[in-house]
Amino acid sequence: METLTEPAVIDQMTPIPFRVRSVREELSHTFTLELEPPNGGLEFRPGQFTMIYAFGIGEVPISISSSSSKATTILQTIRRTGAVTHALGRLKSGDYVGIRGPFGTPWPMQQIKGRDLLIIGGGIGLAPLRPAIYQAIENRSDYERLVVLYGTRTPDDILFARELREWGERTDITTMITVDAADRGWNGAVGVVTRLIGRVGFDPANTTALVCGPEIMMTVTAERLIDGSSVAPEDIYVTMERNMKCAIGVCGHCQFGGKFICTNGAVFQYPAVAELFDIKGV
Amino acid sequence: MSEAELIETLSSHDFFRGLSETDLAKLAAVATEIEFASGKVVFKENGTADAAYAIVSGAIALELDVSARDLIVQTLYDGEMLGWGWLYPPYRWSFSAIAIEPVRMIRFDAEQLRTLLDNDCGLGYEVMKRFVGVMTSRLGATRLQLVDFYGNAN
Hints:
The structure holds 2 protein chains of 2 kinds.
Chain A: E1 16-27, E2 30-36, E3 49-54, E4 58-63, E5 74-79, H1 83-89, E6 96-103, E7 116-122, H2 126-138, E8 146-152, H3 161-169, E9 174-179, E10 182-183, E11 189-190, H4 194-197, E12 207-212, H5 215-229, E13 236-239, E14 255-256, E15 259-260, H6 261-264, E16 267-269, H7 270-277
Chain B: H1 3-11, H2 21-28, E1 31-36, E2 41-43, E3 51-57, E4 59-66, E5 69-77, E6 96-99, E7 103-109, H3 110-119, H4 121-147, H5 149-152
Antiparallel strand pairs in B: 1-7, 2-6, 3-7, 4-5, 4-6
């Protein structure tokens, strides 16, 4: 078996070879890579991302979707959208990818201890939130109420369905799922994810919301939390996506107003980015 | 359920919360309690909208008949009103309503309710105002579902 040697000089632009341990199909267009770091582990914090390099094809930024306390392998959940992600989806156990990172700001898990934690995901947005959910579960007594709300297109598009079911069976977590449309036989909620907010109990004055999904979903969710539930805007965190190339604040591709997603984010307090959502072309 | 119990139930229902005892009594006079087991049809699309329903407990799926397929487009829960086809001619339901859990509701006779609201302008305006709020909220939610933001997201 060919062994890839580590580079002589490690810098933030040099990908490190990670071995693919497994590839799991999550949905028809989404898969998870389980990757082995060469030195037995990768330290990261929930919400951070890596740049994954499909050798000879290109790089994409992908959030880590595994627990940060069990870092002998990392999981990265990827939606097939272009050449690089399709190439990553064709990998098999024993193949290699190049990894740079982790990069970016994390979810503020330490700062929000002692508060109600409201985690709201839409579509593949649940993947960057999953490490935060794991951390809250692994340190359950650090947080008050733990609420997970998830919305997606149809029942066939529910990401991490088994885990959502397991979380829903726990008495110390409130988990609710909604879809935009379903055929008869689906006995869950149908409607936009913001409709779930009014159905769960939390103390707005002592709640932090972590939100991830399409930008329009994050916007309407934040507005619903602020206007409908009196959650303070600074207690709402979102995670942004833009075309990222260098991930170290040099190339400018991920510039979002006056900020770089890769270094000032990807996790932001909502007030820091709220006005930019309304600007077309930004 | 006695009229007093109906008034008490209406007073704690999100749609009617804040109405005076007098107004609640007028509404209770044209209402009865009704239950549906899980899986039961409350009404069918294009059926006569002869009642207004306030959901007290349980869940209702709103379905549309789309190309021989029953598509659930929304679920409603306790504290919500089930449709407004009874409010305006031709008094037809624009969707079907199926109980997806055992459901308890307050049913208002549509003709009696319309007469009450026509003759009592104050109550009529208050109820219409609340229905406009419900319609606005549901229209906004429907627009978001139409955007299909999960399907269009990269």
